[in-house]
């Protein structure tokens, strides 16, 4: 095992960088995580520009992030939206579903309906941040900064993104298989982060086996067995599974000094009207292969629980209900995992993941992004690239196909800001 370089585990710094009030991001060379590196250039519609600060990168070595848990404010739900069976946006909770506790040994057949009652979302369509942006426009007053005259900031957030993108950041120090590409653009003082599909992930998507395609359906079928459309109705497993439909929560929170506004898809809520307010009433549903050997249990703890924890911890969803299924897609048992207890559950696992490493890495990546992304311009994209066993690097792309903030969003945000100020 290698040792951390000059890492002081007692240091209580909350960010990879030293920030001097009013001076923006300085002294970044003092930071051990940021190091000179060969600047990775990527192809785009135009030639990438040289990085003005010289070549820099961010280490993903987990040893560097084993410090005190950073401040993570309790996430607050500021709104929600729905996508219908044709993927149309609605600024309401019409797609909310209610969890119905199944009986002890349910025997759900997850293969039922795959051939004849399944409408699959077209996952070659890249929606980027569009649904979140639609929600922002419909809810300007909820997320606008009050100090509009002093700054050009339009939103009360440093970052706007999908929860799923943050999940990828949280798990990066432990990921050994799949890299990522995250595009970042600054517009009116807020950084928007949107994923770009990697070549490897596109290849995987285009070459899925029939078995894999079918297994992707199983998770949605499990939702249909356990969720009702109305608070007083029951689940209807005879219906059609349509994966265009979604209910998404929008939450606001803060990680150290990063104010975050993000959205995540929520499976269902507790049907008890006295359940705590959202997001505490939400339930995440998962399916997983049944665990028969100590090796399978260890892998489940080391890999799957990391992803489950990261995904639900971020928006403050307190529990995951897992359906364990056999090889034929029949659910044989159910288990509830409380997010706040997962870190205790894994403590006996040798060399296991640590929540603090996940959160500190995410925090330092966001600091790195704030430091790198300097030009406030929706046609400039800073593309952050990561491959396992490498550092995070970036390249800059002007007027390229990576640009992702739609014209309708820029125009709406610009005109309503001007009308507020005049
Ligand atoms: O187009 C894209 N590249 C992306 C679109 C990337 C990531 C997300 N999205 C958006 C979609 O608009 C969707 O409504 O995903 C939304 C959900 O966002 P999220 O909550 O931030 O994503 P994540 O936490 O990764 O996944 C949550 C659930 C998944 O449930 P499980 O239990 O399997 O984790 O959202 C579904 C899936 O049911 N999901 C997606 N739905 C639509 N498009 C996608 C996706 N790309 N990925 C996961
Ligand atoms: Ca789920």
Label this structure with key terms:
single chain; 422 residues; alpha+beta; 9-stranded mixed sheet; 6-stranded mixed sheet; 9 helices; binds ligand 0WD; binds calcium ion
Tell me about this structure.
This protein is of the alpha+beta class. It has helices spanning 130-138, 140-143, 163-171, 199-206, 210-226, 294-313, 339-345, 355-372, 407-421; strands at residues 18-19, 25-26, 34-35, 57-58, 76-83, 89-90, 98-99, 118-119, 159-162, 180-187, 190-196, 227-228, 241-242, 246-255, 258-265, 268-270, 282-289, 319-325, 331-338, 380-386, 393-398. It has a nine-stranded mixed beta sheet. A six-stranded mixed beta sheet has the order 12-7-16-17-18-19. Helix 3 (163-171) crosses helix 6 and helix 3 packs across helix 8 (355-372). The longest helix has 20 residues, at 294-313. The protein is globular. The relative contact order is 0.20. The model is unreliable at 1-30, 37-45, 50-54 and 148-152 (pLDDT under 50). The chain binds ligand 0WD and calcium ion. Residues 83, 121, 126-127, 131, 162-164, 167, 195, 219, 246, 248, 264-265, 286, 311 line the site of ligand 0WD. Belongs to the DXO/Dom3Z family. Keywords: Hydrolase, Magnesium, Metal-binding, Nuclease, Nucleotide-binding, Nucleus, RNA-binding. Its EC number is 3.6.1.-.
